[in-house]
Every structure is written in C-alpha cells, then in structure tokens.
Design a protein that fits this description.
Blueprint lengths: L2 H19 L4 H14 L5 H4 L6 H18 L2 H9 L6 H16 L4 H19 L7 H12 L7 H12 L11 H22 L6 H6 L6 E5 L22 E8 L2 E3 L13 E6 L1 H11 L18 E5 L16 H5 L1 E7 L19 E6 L3 H5 L6 E2 L11 H19 L5 H14 L5 H7 L2 H19 L2 H13 L3 H19 L2 H16 L7 H13 L9 H7 L6 H24 L3
Antiparallel strand pairs: 1-4, 1-6, 2-3, 2-4, 5-7, 5-8, 6-7
Helix pairs in contact: 1-2, 2-18, 4-9, 4-16, 4-17, 4-18, 5-6, 5-7, 6-8, 6-10, 7-8, 7-23, 8-10, 8-23, 9-18, 9-21, 9-22, 10-24, 15-16, 18-21, 19-20, 19-21, 20-21, 20-22, 20-24, 21-22, 22-24
Length: 587
C-alpha cells in the first residue's frame, strides 16, 4: 500500500467517525477530507471540483425541485385519499400503502414522498385504533424499496451512475435497476404484509404518551417577577407533587440544580424544567400565576392552545442551530415548548438546545402557523392533516402529464433525462407553476455539495491504488465462490457502511473497489458489480440512522433502535438474497 493510499485510508476512517458521531455537519466532514486531500497533493483542485460539473449531480438537484413541486400540488395526498383513505383492514391497507409508496418512490425523491404520506398514514392509524408504530416503519421501507427500482429513484443510484460514467463505462439506463429491484420490492412487501408487521411493536405514539404524563419531553417555564413562589422551597411552592408534571431541573444563570430537592429555594428568573403534560403546565400558569412560559410562548395564554407535533428532517435549515437562534416564532408563528430525542437525555433550557435531524418538537401553534409551514421543508407536521385538500387540479394534472412524458422520453432513449428535466423546469417557470423563491428553497444544497464532494473522494480512492488493494482482499475472501462470492462481499461491505454512516458515503467508498474487483472477473459485465453497490447502499433496513426516511419515522412511531433490528434484519437478508441471486444469473 502506497503512502498516499495509507493517508487516504486514515482520512476515510476519520470521515466514517465524523459521520457516525455527528460531531460535524456531514457536508463539513466531506469538505474537510477533500480539502485535506487537495492540500496534501493527493487530489488536484480540478479533481476536487469535478463533481460540481457532473451531469448526474445536477440531475439530483433538478429532481429535488420536481419532487418539491409535486408536494406543493399535493398530488401524493390526493393519491392517498383516492386509493387508501377508505381501506378498513390493516393487512390490505399495509399492502396497498406499500405498493403506492414504492411506485411513487421509483420516480420521486423518497423524503418528500414519506413526508407527504406520513400525516395521512398517522391519522389513518388513529382513526382505526392502530398504533403508528405498526405503520410508519413499513412506510419508510416501502420508500426505500421503491427507490431501488429506477435510476432516479434515489440519489445514490445517480451518484453511482455518475461514478460509472466518469470511469469510462456506459451510463446506466432508467430501468436497468428494475430487473433485480422489482422482484426485491415484491418479496419485501410480501414479507412485511405476512410476517414483518408481526414483529413491529404496538406502541403508543409519542404525542399520546406525552399527554398521558410520560417523561419523554422537557418543558421550560420561568419564575416571573412578583411571583408568589419566590423565596419558597419547592415543597412549599406546591411544585413537588403536581398532577401530570415532574420538576426535573432548575436552571439559574450558569447553575443547574438536578435532581431537585424539596428544600431547594425558588428565585426570581429561575427556569424550571418540567417533564410531563403541556396542558397541565398551562393550567398551572392560569390558576396560580406563579410561573410563565418563556417569552416566545406568551401568545398561548390569550389564544386557544393548539399542540402540534412536528419533525425536523435531515435537510432542514434548523439543524445544528440553537432554538433561540432559529427565529422560530417569527418564522412559523409557533413556539417550541418541548423536544423529544430518543436515546438522549436532554437537559437545560429549550432555547439553548441544538436541534438535530429526527428531533420531535411539540409546538404551540398560532393562527398563521399552517400557512407558513405549508411550503416549508424545515419541518414536517406529523399529527394533524387538513381535512380539505386544496389541489389546483388543472395545474396538477398538466404538471403530472409533463413529468410522466419526461420519464417516458428518457426511458425509450428519445431524449436525455438531463435535457428533459431542464425543459420541464423551463415550462414550470414560464407558466408560473412555481416561483423563483420556491425553486430556490427546494434545492437541497447540502445534498448536492455532499454528492459532489463524495465524487472527489471516489476519484481519490481509485487514484491512490487503495481500491486495487482492497479489491485483492475481496477476491481472496470470495475464494471458490467466484463471482457470487465477490458480489456478496461487495454487498455486505456497502450495506454495513450505509447502515452506520450515509448511503452516499457508502456508495462513494465502495464503488472504486467494486470496479477493481470486476477486473478479476472479465467474463462478467462490470455493471453487475456497480448495481450491487447501488442496491446495497440504498437498502438500509436495520438501523434508523442509515437512511433519512428511517430517521423521519423514528420519533413519530415511538420506535427503539432494536425495533429496526428486529424487523429489518430478516428483510435485509431477503433483499440481499434476491439481488445477489438475480444478478449472479446474468454473469
């Protein structure tokens, strides 16, 4: 192994560590690695920036815009209400829901599909007395499965295709993934409908648990000036045995008092952190006037209080910011009264907490909340669905027809996908189907930048000889199993990486290795090894952190890490078996 390959291996280890621990934003982690490679001379500046001019990276950005506009027209919500809204029985609903979501995810970005469907699925379960934990993992899995069937079904497929073209291989077609992907979707859906749903927990959703006084959320209150409890002990102030509430911490300037003793003295300006029921907090404030909510929540005392549950997605601009830095009240006409983050013990004032992907927020929503959150991708409302779908049917049908036309032209090789999407975007702007501001907001710069930087890392892995070094090891492990063993080894390596870091990182790191391995099996087309990387990088079923849709349903479904293991391990094995079997038949 050369010196440059050894340095790169260390940097890749650092990248995996940073992505797994979330110490830095993923884009920052990728940038630091690429910047280091340039400074050390392993990559030239041109190689580092190659991804930004790559056609497939631009296609990802264009598809994000298209998916956002489809979400705006509420086309997926309309499809849900027409096809699934009247279904009564759980197994049939599960089958239809997974079928519809898989189909849509084959052509649309997975995140907006899940974001749009989640409130409807959530509400359907409530109406039927079925726990969301029985519905939301299947929703995420359906989106993942569907995304593996076409070139545009997931950004991972497009990145793998971009790496293939850069390596001098023939570009993958729109439906080249269908051969193995469609049977895998069918097997995965049958598994979930017949067996997988039995492994899902029947657990009360977070909001219901919270309203019953479970201690998963923290709520902040403040002791105002002239409060009658100033100078009293916690016990004398009547804060020791409150119904539905538990005083977990007192924050006093830089001092934190936890656990709270009955003898602790209450002072003016103290922040009292409770765990429990928001309604009980409001009643306490109204009755005793001893406490108040933080200044951002004051409107709640004079208006009808609407408690809304919302989810922070991976690409939200709120991620990484302290609550007090987000301008939340001004932006959304809502106040954050509680935060839930599974697996982490939250402490301190709400305003000082740094928001992370997957956080569940309990909000006190003002009158303008719904109009402001409608077109925002910064958070997804989980627990409430507007009764009336405000669909502009004429524009929606025109847009849907144009999008399907683009897909058809690309599928039959009549017009390149990149050019078709550009023409579609021009039509969108020309006929004012979306404003410039909406288009700008819908482009996920974090995703585009991460994809571009990952492209540079893939070049470095091939350039330094690290790919060839690892390829020799893979071939040695494959042994007498030959091509099947090699495909299996590549799949397992990629899939394990994607479960604990990101699908983009996994595909980028393993692609050069897969390409090098393919050279040892000249009788088999290299496309088989490339497709294996793409399938494995997208098939994240075993952990909530491997794929963004899993993280999206993690909190709302009140899941535990082990829930994904219990349901996802058998599905991962089935999916892998179908993919490897069908690909090996083409050798």
């Amino acid at each position: 192994m050369s010196y440059s390959a050894l340095v790169l291996l260390v940097l890749l280890g650092l990248l995996i560590y940073l992505l797994y621990t979330e110490k830095l934003h993923p884009v920052v982690s990728f940038f630091l690695v690429v910047a280091t490679l340039v400074v050390l001379g392993i990559l030239t500046p041109e190689e580092a920036l190659t991804g930004f001019s790559n056609e497939q990276i631009v296609v990802i950005a264009l598809l994000l815009v298209i998916s956002s506009i489809i979400k705006k027209f509420e086309i997926t919500g309309l499809i849900f209400s027409k096809l699934l809204g009247k279904e009564e029985r759980y197994p049939f609903f599960l089958a239809k829901m997974m079928g519809v979501v898989s189909f849509l995810s084959a052509f649309l970005n997975n995140t907006p599909v899940v974001a749009t469907f989640m409130p409807y699925v959530y509400q359907w379960g409530r109406n039927k007395g079925i726990s969301p934990s029985k519905l939301l993992i299947p929703l995420s899995y359906a989106a993942i499965l569907g995304g593996t069937t076409t070139l545009i079904g997931t950004s991972t497929n497009l990145i793998v295709n971009a790496l293939a073209v850069e390596s001098g291989l023939k570009p993958l077609g729109l439906f080249d993934f269908l051969y193995a992907g469609l049977p895998a979707v069918l097997v995965g859906t049958i598994y979930m409908v017949l067996f997988g749903h039995r492994l899902l927990p029947e657990r009360e959703d977070i909001l219901s648990s919270f309203l019953k006084g479970k201690r998963e959320y923290l709520i902040e209150t403040v002791v105002p000036r002239f409060s009658p409890i100033i100078g009293k002990t916690v016990l004398d102030a009547g804060l020791r045995n409150l119904k539905g509430l538990f005083l977990v911490e007192i924050v006093r300037e830089e001092e934190r008092i936890a656990p709270v003793s009955p003898k602790d003295i209450i002072r003016e300006g103290d922040a009292l952190i409770f765990a429990g029921d928001p309604d009980s907090i409001v009643e306490l404030i109204k009755e005793k006037r001893a406490l108040t909510l933080p200044s951002d929540c004051h409107f709640a005392l004079s208006q009808k209080i609407e408690v809304v549950e919302a989810l922070i997605p991976v690409n939200s601009s709120l991620v990484g910011k302290k609550v007090r830095e987000t301008g939340f009240r001004a932006k959304f006409d809502a106040a954050i009264i509680a935060i839930h983050r599974d697996g982490e013990r939250l402490r301190g004032k709400i305003g000082e907490m740094v928001l992370k992907p997957g956080d569940l927020l309990l909000l006190l929503a003002g009158e303008d909340f719904w109009s402001r959150v409608k077109d925002s991708d910064d958070m997804f409302v989980v627990n409430k669905v507007n009764e009336t779908l405000t669909v502009d049917s004429k524009k929606a049908l025109i847009f849907l027809f144009l999008f399907l036309l683009v897909i058809a032209l690309s599928a039959f090789g009549l017009f390149p996908l990149f050019k078709s999407l550009l023409v579609l975007l021009a039509v969108i702007v020309l006929f004012k189907m979306a404003t410039y501001g909406e288009i700008k907001r819908s482009i996920d710069l974090n995703m585009v930048m991460m994809a571009a930087f990952s492209f540079a890392i893939g070049i470095a892995i091939a350039k330094t000889g690290l790919a060839d070094f690892i390829a020799h090891k893979v071939v040695a492990v494959a042994g007498e199993l030959g091509v099947v063993g090699a495909l299996l080894s590549i799949y397992i390596i990629t899939n394990l990486l994607t479960e604990f870091v990101t699908n983009v990182a996994a595909a980028t790191m393993v692609f050069p290795v897969a390409l090098s391995v393919s050279k040892f099996y000249s009788s088999s087309p290299p496309e088989l090894f490339i497709l294996t990387v793409a399938y494995a990088a997208s098939a994240s079923f075993m952990t909530p952190i491997g794929y963004q849709t899993n993280l999206m349903v993690y909190g709302p479904g009140n899941y535990r890490f082990k829930d994904f293991l219990r349901v996802g391990v058998p599905l991962s094995f089935l999916f892998m078996s179908v993919i490897i079997l069908l690909l090996s038949l083409r050798t």
